[in-house]
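Morning!

This is the sequence you dropped in the shared folder:
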Amino acid sequence: MMELYRKSMKRMEEEGVIKMIEILVRSEGMDTFNVDVKEVETIHNIKVKIQEIKGIPWDKQVLSYKGKKLEDDCNVADYNIENKSTLDLIVPPPGIQLFIKSDGIDTFTIDVKEKETIHNVKMKIQEIKGIPCDVQILFYQGQKQRYKLKDDCSLADYNIENKSILDLIDEKKMKEEALKKGEELLRAQPDLRNKTEIRWSEKGTGSNFVMLCELLKGNAIPTKKLDLDGNNIGDSGARMISEALKTNNTLTALSLGSDNNSMNE
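The structure's back. C-alpha coordinates below.
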Protein backbone atom coordinates (compact mmCIF):
# COMPACT_ATOMS: atom_id res chain seq x y z
CA MET A 1 0.00 0.00 0.00
CA MET A 2 2.77 2.46 0.95
CA GLU A 3 4.63 1.58 -2.25
CA LEU A 4 1.56 2.40 -4.32
CA TYR A 5 1.20 5.65 -2.42
CA ARG A 6 4.82 6.61 -3.13
CA LYS A 7 4.46 5.78 -6.80
CA SER A 8 1.25 7.79 -7.00
CA MET A 9 2.89 10.76 -5.30
CA LYS A 10 5.91 10.55 -7.58
CA ARG A 11 3.69 10.46 -10.69
CA MET A 12 1.67 13.43 -9.47
CA GLU A 13 4.91 15.28 -8.77
CA GLU A 14 6.23 14.52 -12.27
CA GLU A 15 2.95 15.69 -13.77
CA GLY A 16 3.20 18.94 -11.87
CA VAL A 17 0.16 18.24 -9.70
CA ILE A 18 2.31 18.33 -6.57
CA LYS A 19 4.77 21.19 -6.38
CA MET A 20 8.14 21.23 -4.66
CA ILE A 21 8.77 24.38 -2.62
CA GLU A 22 11.70 25.76 -0.73
CA ILE A 23 11.16 26.94 2.84
CA LEU A 24 13.56 28.81 5.08
CA VAL A 25 14.09 27.68 8.65
CA ARG A 26 15.49 30.10 11.21
CA SER A 27 16.40 29.47 14.81
CA GLU A 28 18.22 31.35 17.53
CA GLY A 29 21.87 30.37 17.70
CA MET A 30 22.17 28.99 14.17
CA ASP A 31 22.23 30.25 10.59
CA THR A 32 19.01 30.22 8.58
CA PHE A 33 18.93 27.18 6.27
CA ASN A 34 16.77 25.84 3.43
CA VAL A 35 14.60 22.72 3.28
CA ASP A 36 13.00 21.43 0.07
CA VAL A 37 9.54 19.97 0.67
CA LYS A 38 6.36 19.01 -1.14
CA GLU A 39 3.18 21.00 -0.59
CA VAL A 40 1.48 17.89 0.74
CA GLU A 41 4.25 16.89 3.15
CA THR A 42 3.39 16.73 6.82
CA ILE A 43 5.06 18.90 9.43
CA HIS A 44 6.42 15.67 10.90
CA ASN A 45 8.24 14.99 7.62
CA ILE A 46 9.73 18.48 7.67
CA LYS A 47 11.03 17.87 11.19
CA VAL A 48 12.62 14.62 10.03
CA LYS A 49 14.38 16.51 7.22
CA ILE A 50 15.60 19.11 9.73
CA GLN A 51 16.92 16.25 11.88
CA GLU A 52 18.84 14.92 8.86
CA ILE A 53 20.32 18.37 8.19
CA LYS A 54 21.01 19.66 11.71
CA GLY A 55 20.92 16.53 13.88
CA ILE A 56 18.15 17.90 16.11
CA PRO A 57 15.78 15.04 17.10
CA TRP A 58 12.43 15.63 15.42
CA ASP A 59 10.48 15.16 18.66
CA LYS A 60 12.48 17.97 20.31
CA GLN A 61 11.55 20.50 17.64
CA VAL A 62 8.80 23.09 17.80
CA LEU A 63 7.95 24.71 14.45
CA SER A 64 5.82 27.80 13.97
CA TYR A 65 4.69 29.90 11.02
CA LYS A 66 3.58 33.50 11.45
CA GLY A 67 3.37 32.91 15.20
CA LYS A 68 1.24 29.76 14.95
CA LYS A 69 2.55 26.44 16.22
CA LEU A 70 2.52 23.74 13.52
CA GLU A 71 1.01 20.34 14.35
CA ASP A 72 2.84 17.19 13.26
CA ASP A 73 -0.08 15.53 11.47
CA CYS A 74 -0.97 18.59 9.38
CA ASN A 75 0.69 19.35 6.06
CA VAL A 76 2.29 22.36 4.44
CA ALA A 77 -0.82 23.28 2.45
CA ASP A 78 -2.99 23.27 5.59
CA TYR A 79 -1.11 26.34 6.81
CA ASN A 80 -0.86 28.02 3.37
CA ILE A 81 2.92 27.82 3.56
CA GLU A 82 4.28 28.94 0.20
CA ASN A 83 7.60 28.91 -1.60
CA LYS A 84 10.30 30.91 0.26
CA SER A 85 8.19 31.08 3.42
CA THR A 86 10.09 31.23 6.74
CA LEU A 87 9.43 28.83 9.60
CA ASP A 88 10.66 29.50 13.11
CA LEU A 89 12.33 26.58 14.86
CA ILE A 90 12.46 26.42 18.64
CA VAL A 91 14.41 23.74 20.47
CA PRO A 92 13.38 23.72 24.15
CA PRO A 93 16.31 23.46 26.58
CA PRO A 94 17.05 19.89 27.60
CA GLY A 95 15.48 18.63 30.79
CA ILE A 96 17.51 17.40 33.74
CA GLN A 97 16.78 14.98 36.53
CA LEU A 98 17.41 15.89 40.17
CA PHE A 99 17.61 13.66 43.22
CA ILE A 100 15.85 15.04 46.31
CA LYS A 101 17.16 13.74 49.63
CA SER A 102 15.47 14.33 52.97
CA ASP A 103 15.41 12.75 56.42
CA GLY A 104 12.46 10.46 57.01
CA ILE A 105 11.56 9.90 53.35
CA ASP A 106 13.12 7.90 50.54
CA THR A 107 15.24 9.80 48.01
CA PHE A 108 13.10 10.63 44.97
CA THR A 109 13.62 12.22 41.56
CA ILE A 110 12.03 15.14 39.73
CA ASP A 111 12.37 16.23 36.11
CA VAL A 112 13.00 19.93 35.57
CA LYS A 113 14.46 22.44 33.11
CA GLU A 114 17.79 24.15 33.73
CA LYS A 115 16.15 27.59 33.66
CA GLU A 116 13.35 26.71 36.08
CA THR A 117 13.20 28.70 39.28
CA ILE A 118 13.70 27.15 42.69
CA HIS A 119 10.08 28.04 43.44
CA ASN A 120 8.99 25.85 40.50
CA VAL A 121 11.14 23.02 41.85
CA LYS A 122 9.40 23.36 45.21
CA MET A 123 6.02 23.29 43.47
CA LYS A 124 6.93 19.96 41.87
CA ILE A 125 8.07 18.60 45.23
CA GLN A 126 4.74 19.70 46.71
CA GLU A 127 2.88 17.83 43.95
CA ILE A 128 4.89 14.67 44.61
CA LYS A 129 5.24 14.67 48.40
CA GLY A 130 2.57 17.09 49.59
CA ILE A 131 5.06 19.31 51.43
CA PRO A 132 3.92 22.96 51.10
CA CYS A 133 6.33 25.21 49.22
CA ASP A 134 6.56 27.73 52.05
CA VAL A 135 8.00 25.19 54.51
CA GLN A 136 10.57 23.71 52.13
CA ILE A 137 14.23 24.65 52.48
CA LEU A 138 16.51 23.38 49.69
CA PHE A 139 20.29 23.15 49.81
CA TYR A 140 22.85 22.30 47.12
CA GLN A 141 26.46 21.34 47.75
CA GLY A 142 28.50 23.12 45.08
CA GLN A 143 32.18 22.59 44.39
CA LYS A 144 33.26 25.33 46.76
CA GLN A 145 30.34 25.95 49.08
CA ARG A 146 26.91 24.81 50.22
CA TYR A 147 24.07 26.97 48.92
CA LYS A 148 20.69 27.65 50.45
CA LEU A 149 18.58 28.00 47.32
CA LYS A 150 16.51 31.18 46.86
CA ASP A 151 13.04 30.93 45.33
CA ASP A 152 13.54 33.57 42.64
CA CYS A 153 16.83 32.12 41.36
CA SER A 154 17.08 29.40 38.72
CA LEU A 155 18.87 26.07 38.77
CA ALA A 156 21.32 27.49 36.22
CA ASP A 157 22.21 30.32 38.62
CA TYR A 158 23.70 27.70 40.97
CA ASN A 159 25.21 25.58 38.15
CA ILE A 160 22.99 22.67 39.16
CA GLU A 161 23.40 19.95 36.55
CA ASN A 162 21.75 16.67 35.59
CA LYS A 163 21.77 14.03 38.36
CA SER A 164 22.60 16.58 41.06
CA ILE A 165 21.41 16.01 44.63
CA LEU A 166 19.39 18.59 46.54
CA ASP A 167 18.90 18.35 50.29
CA LEU A 168 15.35 19.07 51.41
CA ILE A 169 14.40 20.23 54.89
CA ASP A 170 10.79 20.46 55.97
CA GLU A 171 10.96 23.62 58.09
CA LYS A 172 7.67 22.92 59.88
CA LYS A 173 8.71 19.38 60.75
CA MET A 174 12.16 20.59 61.80
CA LYS A 175 10.64 23.14 64.19
CA GLU A 176 8.22 20.59 65.62
CA GLU A 177 11.10 18.19 66.27
CA ALA A 178 13.20 20.99 67.75
CA LEU A 179 10.39 21.96 70.13
CA LYS A 180 9.96 18.32 71.14
CA LYS A 181 13.69 18.03 71.85
CA GLY A 182 13.53 21.32 73.72
CA GLU A 183 10.77 20.01 75.94
CA GLU A 184 12.83 16.86 76.58
CA LEU A 185 15.80 19.07 77.45
CA LEU A 186 13.69 21.05 79.89
CA ARG A 187 12.53 17.87 81.56
CA ALA A 188 16.15 16.72 81.87
CA GLN A 189 17.41 20.14 82.99
CA PRO A 190 14.50 21.85 84.78
CA ASP A 191 16.80 24.64 85.99
CA LEU A 192 16.64 26.10 82.46
CA ARG A 193 13.04 27.06 83.16
CA ASN A 194 14.38 29.56 85.70
CA LYS A 195 17.39 30.77 83.71
CA THR A 196 16.93 34.42 82.78
CA GLU A 197 20.26 34.93 81.00
CA ILE A 198 21.70 32.73 78.25
CA ARG A 199 25.05 33.13 76.52
CA TRP A 200 24.76 30.96 73.41
CA SER A 201 28.08 29.29 72.58
CA GLU A 202 27.15 27.18 69.55
CA LYS A 203 27.92 28.67 66.14
CA GLY A 204 25.55 28.71 63.19
CA THR A 205 21.86 27.82 62.94
CA GLY A 206 21.84 24.07 63.52
CA SER A 207 19.10 22.04 65.18
CA ASN A 208 19.96 23.31 68.67
CA PHE A 209 19.59 26.92 67.54
CA VAL A 210 16.21 26.06 66.01
CA MET A 211 15.28 24.45 69.33
CA LEU A 212 16.27 27.62 71.19
CA CYS A 213 14.11 29.76 68.88
CA GLU A 214 11.12 27.49 69.37
CA LEU A 215 11.51 27.59 73.15
CA LEU A 216 11.63 31.38 73.02
CA LYS A 217 8.68 31.50 70.65
CA GLY A 218 6.58 29.37 72.97
CA ASN A 219 7.72 31.22 76.12
CA ALA A 220 8.93 27.89 77.47
CA ILE A 221 11.92 29.53 79.16
CA PRO A 222 11.95 32.85 81.07
CA THR A 223 14.98 34.24 79.27
CA LYS A 224 15.35 37.99 79.62
CA LYS A 225 18.81 38.37 78.13
CA LEU A 226 20.22 36.41 75.17
CA ASP A 227 23.83 36.87 74.04
CA LEU A 228 24.61 35.60 70.50
CA ASP A 229 27.89 37.49 70.20
CA GLY A 230 30.22 35.81 67.68
CA ASN A 231 27.84 32.99 66.80
CA ASN A 232 27.64 33.72 63.05
CA ILE A 233 23.91 33.07 62.78
CA GLY A 234 23.67 35.12 59.59
CA ASP A 235 20.54 36.54 58.01
CA SER A 236 18.58 33.29 58.32
CA GLY A 237 19.32 33.09 62.06
CA ALA A 238 18.34 36.73 62.54
CA ARG A 239 15.02 36.03 60.80
CA MET A 240 14.40 33.03 63.06
CA ILE A 241 15.05 35.11 66.17
CA SER A 242 12.82 37.87 64.81
CA GLU A 243 10.03 35.34 64.25
CA ALA A 244 10.41 34.05 67.82
CA LEU A 245 10.19 37.56 69.24
CA LYS A 246 6.76 38.06 67.71
CA THR A 247 5.24 35.85 70.41
CA ASN A 248 7.91 35.96 73.11
CA ASN A 249 7.03 38.14 76.10
CA THR A 250 10.07 37.65 78.35
CA LEU A 251 13.16 38.68 76.34
CA THR A 252 14.23 42.26 76.98
CA ALA A 253 17.86 42.29 75.79
CA LEU A 254 19.42 40.64 72.74
CA SER A 255 23.00 40.88 71.50
CA LEU A 256 23.09 39.77 67.87
CA GLY A 257 26.81 39.49 67.21
CA SER A 258 30.34 40.76 67.39
CA ASP A 259 29.38 43.85 65.37
CA ASN A 260 27.61 44.99 68.59
CA ASN A 261 24.15 44.90 67.05
CA SER A 262 21.71 44.63 69.90
CA MET A 263 18.07 44.92 70.88
CA ASN A 264 16.91 46.35 74.15
CA GLU A 265 13.39 47.05 75.28
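Headline: The chain has a mean pLDDT of 83.

More detail when I'm at my desk.
O.
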